[in-house]
Amino acid sequence: MTQVVAEIDPVVGRPALVEGRPGFHGITEAVARPVEWKPPLGWYIVLAVSLSMLGLFGVSIAWLLWEGVGIWGNNQPVGWGWPIVNFVFWVGIGHAGTLISAVLFLFRQRWRTSINRAAEAMTLFAVACALTFPGIHTGRPWLDYWMMPVPNQMAMWPQFRSPLMWDVFAVSIYGLVSLLFWYVGLIPDLATMRDRATTRVRQVAYGIFALGWRGSMRHWLHYEKAYLLLAGLATPLVLSVHSVVSFDFAVSQIPGWHTTIFPPYFVAGAIFSGMAMVITLMVIGRVAFGLKHLITLLHFDRMAKLILLTGTLVGYAYGVEFFVAWYSGNPFERYAFLNRAFGPYAWAYWIMVSCNVLSPQVFWFQRARTSIPVLFVVSILVNIGMWFERFVIVVTSLHRDFLPSSWGYFRPTFWDIATFLGSFGLFFTLFTLFVRFLPMVSMSELKGVLPEAHAHGLPPDATPDKPLHEPAVGTGLASHPPQPEVS
Amino acid sequence: MRLPWQSKAAAARPAAEGPWLLAEFTTPDAVLAAADAVRRTGTTRWDVHSPFPVHGLERAMGLKASLVPWFVLILGLAGAAAGMGLQWWASTIAYPLVVSGKPMFSWPAFVPIMFECGVLGGALGAVGGLLFEARLPRHHHPLFASKRFERMSDDRFFVSVDTADPNAGEAEGLLRRAGAVHVERLATEAPAPEGRA
């Protein structure tokens, strides 16, 4: 690792998570300053581009509502065109945030502290984009309340045996729990912003959301417990959400969809695509906001390893799908997969395979894992590949099912493309505003992993004269060993 | 008046907060030693403030384990029960509809939504439990009167002691001996609401 990290944390004896020994105040300064200063010109340019794409989204949706879903390419036999492809794409991206903040937290991967805030924000914004698509897919969003279990004038209730209903609950609860998790993590940092505020408006605005946080140890005790439990709840939640999304397909009878490998395959793909999006955003964000010493090559090295792992898992799933299609002896299933790889959509299939399975293989080499240009290019390729994966699953399975007389070829229209690009406008607008108004790195957590944050116990003359509240053997105050990091 | 969530001991404590002592420290080690010393005076109305949780402080302060897990357990189970109950009621009583010849109460198909509702309940329990146990939001606190206290969320560690507590008598000298770089006595503001020490 000498190439990546020159500094070693003196307490845990592992590579330092933060470079240059900034100290507590240095971290506050580095993270809070971009929020407090006038943003650079580049920020306004990015915001302008994002806002114009958001405008395109608005125009596309307005035209959809005026004219109807006929403006899209969706038609028989491909009734689930780009809107569902985009929905699954965005939900998948939303998974990395919770993986980084919850799963890596439970595994005590302390390097996550530099990136978890931004990754969680990315999750929220991606889920917002994702929820738009099922909302507008029918072309009648004013009837969306039919999906909710609310008493209504028709005296009807949702059909809870349908995976589509499970999806409504899974994705909306996922969005809500991610919001809670993100907000709880923000409270101490909002207090920092409040205490540093130089104007009354900032002080009140941050102060309201900081809830009067005063860093009390009596509060931290509950805070840490609540955070741990939220992580414990979010971990099965994140695994369940994309499993439920995959049920939308797997529970149906369509060849190419009706497979039991879908839940784990979708979850691996979701984490894969989300990690790629985190890398894309962080590569830009750390340079634009001067956070290179907090988000270091060490972080990219580890994220790249996760990309390699999940990308290879996804590649394995592609292979197993083919094996099972052949082994099942089901002629429709066999045809669906042969058609996928060699039929009219073969171009999409091979884009998917080369982006998702081949391109991450460069990450076997540390040189690639720590090279910013390589990381950036591969992360973009992975995002493209994962969009095509959903396209391949949705479109190639539907366009040729059981009856050759009802086969067809799906083509997107201008408005399909405009709506999809527009959803990036929503995502980037929200993210651009986030980095301007909220600290994009968790200051309180990052301070807690600095070497100087570890209290080494009391001086010898202050040995407790009576047992403490929890006199656990070997963990008394006099010998408070640093927690070994589990990797 | 004793509020429903207050213990008798908490209600018996003086409601008015006296002048607060605020001692500033620069390292986690120093504040840990100071906290240990203050705990041994027997005072109950005191606290430690830090920009991040200093591990070991909860033992030095003699804090009991958090009750937040109980909020999560109870609300999580309640959420799961509500999720299953909603589906049972909607599919058997409110809108009985035969789908694929399955029983009205085809519970295996209801498990995913039950699970999601349980997670939602647990998450609300974690956040609600945190806010309740920490008595937040509380936007007014005597400590906010101190200008130096603003560094609580940056790089400084503070010990605050309510001098209204009879056991807090010698706290000032104790904190100075423990290595406080600055000790101040904050003017008393209007009495805080009961039980929010």
The radius of gyration over CA of chain B amounts to 24 Å
Sequence stretches where pLDDT stays below 50 over 5 or more residues of chain B: 193-197
| Biggest beta sheet attributes of chain A | none
User: Hey, which two chains have the biggest interface?
Assistant: A-B, 80 and 81 residues
Task: Determine the number of helices of chain B (DSSP H or I, runs of at least 4 residues).
Answer: 6
Cα(first) to Cα(last) distance of chain A is 15 Å
Helix content, binned percent of chain A: 55-70%
**How many distinct helices of chain A?**
16
| Main beta-sheet strand count, sense and barrel state of chain B | 4 strands, antiparallel
Assign an overall shape of chain B: elongated
State Rg of chain A: 25 Å
Mean pLDDT of chain B: 85
Q: Oligomerization state of this entry?
A: heterodimer
Widest β-sheet, arrangement of strands of chain B: 2-3-1-4
Query: What is the CA-CA span between the terminal residues of chain B?
Result: 15 Å
Q: Could you spell the SSE succession of chain B in H and E letters? A: HEHEHHHEHE
General description of the model:
The complex is a heterodimer of chains A (487) and B (197). Chain A has 487 residues and is mainly α. Chain A contains 16 helices and no strands. The longest helix of chain A has 34 residues. Chain B has a four-stranded antiparallel β-sheet with strand order 2-3-1-4, with helices on one face. In chain B, helix 4 runs antiparallel to helix 5. The chains are: A mainly alpha (487), B alpha+beta (197).
Compose a concise summary of this entry.
The complex is a heterodimer of chains A (487) and B (197). In chain A, 64% of the residues lie in helices and 0% in strands.
Task: Please name the defining characteristics of this protein.
heterodimer; A: 487 residues; mainly alpha; 16 helices; 64% helix; B: 197 residues; 4-stranded antiparallel beta sheet; 40% helix; 11% strand; disordered C terminus
